[in-house]
Structures are given as C-alpha cells and as structure tokens.
Write a structure and sequence with these properties.
Elements lengths: L1 H4 L3 H8 L7 H10 L5 H4 L16 H12 L1
Length: about 70
C-alpha cells in the first residue's frame, strides 16, 4: 500500500496504527490507490477528533531554559 501511494513504509504504518496524522495530499494518494473517494476517509470527523494542541516554545524560551539548567 505504501509503495503504491509513493509513501515511506514507516509513515504509512503510523497512519495505519492510528498514530500518524496524514496531510490532505497523503489522504488523496491513499484514496487513489484504493479507488475510493477521499471524502470517505474523513467523513464524520470533527474538531473533537483532532489531537491536542502542543504548546509551542520560542527560541527565547529555549535559550532561557538552557541557561537556567546550566546555573
């Protein structure tokens, strides 16, 4: 499946196991291989199905933390 869709096997495996978060391009490629409508892959999904947002840190936050750890 991964080969037919032009994907890395590891990335495909993550999607298959439900731990990958494919972009639209990937969804369309997989649907094409399966001769399916890409809409069927996302039908019924809503905001409550999204993974939690990760807190983003700035470069300044990183530098500050590194300095704190060195002290």
């Amino acid at each position: 499946m991964a080969h037919l869709a032009g994907m890395n096997v590891s990335n495909y495996g993550k999607i298959e196991r439900g731990i990958g978060n494919p972009v639209l391009h990937t969804i369309v490629r997989l649907a094409a291989v399966l001769d399916a409508d890409p809409a069927a892959f996302v039908s019924g999904l809503g905001a409550d199905h999204l993974p939690p947002l990760l807190e983003a840190f700035s470069a300044a936050d990183y530098v500050r933390e590194q300095r704190r750890r060195r002290s």
